[in-house]
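Translate sequence into structure tokens.
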Amino acid sequence: MPDTFRNDIEMNFRSDNEAGAHPAIIEAVARAFTSGSAFSYGADQWTEKVEHRLREIFEKPDLRAFPVITGTASNALALSCCTPPWGAIYCHPVAHIAVDEANAPMFYSGGAKLCPIDGPAGKIDPRKLAEALAHPVYGNVHHPQPSAISITQATECGTVYAPEEIAALTNSAHRHGLKVHMDGARFTNALSFVGCAPAELSWKAGVDVLSFGATKNGAMAAEAVIFFNSELAREFEFRRHRGGHLMSKMRLLSAQLDAYLTDGLWLANARHANAMARRLIAGLTPLKGTSLLYPVDANEIFVVLPAHMHDALQEAGAQYHPWPSDRPGERAFRLVTAFDTDPAAIDRFLSIAKVA
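Result follows.
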């Protein structure tokens, strides 16, 4: 029996959140654990090293970076520095902050309102944003005040903003005095797809603060809030502590980020995840009855599968999530590849799909 038909290969494409941690990161945490005592609350050498490394990577000497444990905390705390409680935060209707974070942005900001701006394939339409920002609500006490926009990179539909697409949004936002936040839970996957410098996909395109994700890309539990506009960082440490996200043994977070950024591990992990997604769609999309809902730019795939193929894959143990489709009668699904996806799992999945 060919290796591609082995039934002991796990075909888990539910989420990159379900992947493990890279051995280099686990080893780095173990070393930080056993290295003796260290200053607490972020005054340690690991945390300092991470900030310096990020300044080099993003080519921004005055950058400020703060580790936090979760992506939700990263997004919500970053946004709380960009808006007053009476502010309006513009985002895509399917943005993680709008759908999946249980009102955390509103809670941490003290009540700011999320205002959806639609656009195809998870991207905010720059014309619709410009129209929303042109409304005469500025200074009107009866309306939330436009304060920030939040864009997701890569988007919740698996697509990626190019630098010029980001600039189209940020130019409009800055023209009206708004701050720009980027939810970068999969920033490295997006960066791998675009192939530009990190600075070009962030602050050079007009981003003020980035929620820099590592957990989905090989860390145990570590994110960083990166302020390119250092003025916005003045209150962050107080907000982080008030919100219960200041770790006493911060070195255990920072050790993960340090290992993540060492020798290009973060980029290698994302390249592998993206490559596995391309491998999957290369074999899947030629099959009769399949079609993509969105372009596959990073490591998320949204695909229509015929019923007989889906049933055969489920019977064989393939794991992935159903996803709504706007087209009547179609059954769509989301598949996500990760930094540790086994090519053999891709090949087994495709072998089953081809004979279904």
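Note: DSSP finds 13 helices and eleven strands in the chain.
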